[in-house]
Each structure stands twice: as C-alpha cells, then as structure tokens.
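Bit of a strange request maybe. I'm writing a small parser for structure token strings and I need a real example to test against, not something I typed by hand. Could someone generate the tokens for this chain?
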Amino acid sequence: MKKMLLVLALVLIGSLAANAKVFNFSFDGFCDNITSVRNSPGAPVPAVFLHGVHHLIAPCGGAFDSNVGGFKHGKSSTFAPFISPVDDYSDPIEGLYGANYSLQYLVHEPNLAGGCLWANYFSNGFGQYVFNSGTCTTFAGAAPQKRMPGSSSVKR
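Reply from user aminoacidic:
Good idea to test on real output. This should exercise your parser:
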C-alpha cells in the first residue's frame, strides 16, 4: 500500500512538471517583474494554477521578493486589461509592508491575441480599485537585476 501511494505521488509530481509553463515578465515603464509557472495536475484539467515570485530589485526600493499565486481564468472584457483570459496573481506584498490592502495583478500573456497587458487592482476593505495598468515584456531565465526605468508597479 505504501509503495502504491509513493508511485501515485511520483506520477502526480511528474504530471505537474510535464504540464508546467514558465511565464516571466517585467512591467514596461516600471522596475519590478514577476517570474511564474502555470501548471495543472494533468489531463483533462487545463493549466490553471499559478505560483511564482514578484521581484522588486534594488532600484525599486530594495531587493525584496514576494511570493505570488493564483489562477488562469476568463473574465469580463469590460474592465482592465480589457482582454481575456488572464493570469490572476494574488500578491501579499502590501501586507508585508504593513499596509491593510489586498493586491491583484491581472495579466494577459503575449502568446495570446492582444499582446502582454496587465492591470493592478488593490482593495482597502471598502472596494476594489484599479491602481496601474500597462504593457509587459517577457524574458527567459532568471529575473533581470539591472536598473529598469521607473518605480515599482506596487501602490505605496
């Protein structure tokens, strides 16, 4: 029984790795970026689960990383970034700085029609508000550590 459970666990882990898609992007005009992976437990479940890291490099106010997670989903095209589907990242970075906000990034990948677009929403407990939006650029490998133009895409 234990061997069978071990084999099933290895198959599940292998199927997650086999269905993984890396998506790394920087926010155009800002100095931060996100490195992420989208995966699923395997067919017939689509690759809908996201996990990754929001990198705020030194020029953004300090070398700081925040873990992000979420889902890929469709959404109404009546709010930013006005295209569907999106990768929906939940980012606890505001809470880590002591602010009482929740933060969401909705990102449309560039391999889909419409290019790489994003919108940043925050909530203060009274409503959901658009803070920033724009375009993004993908990159391969590790997060860029050079000085990028602008400030962080995060509300401060």
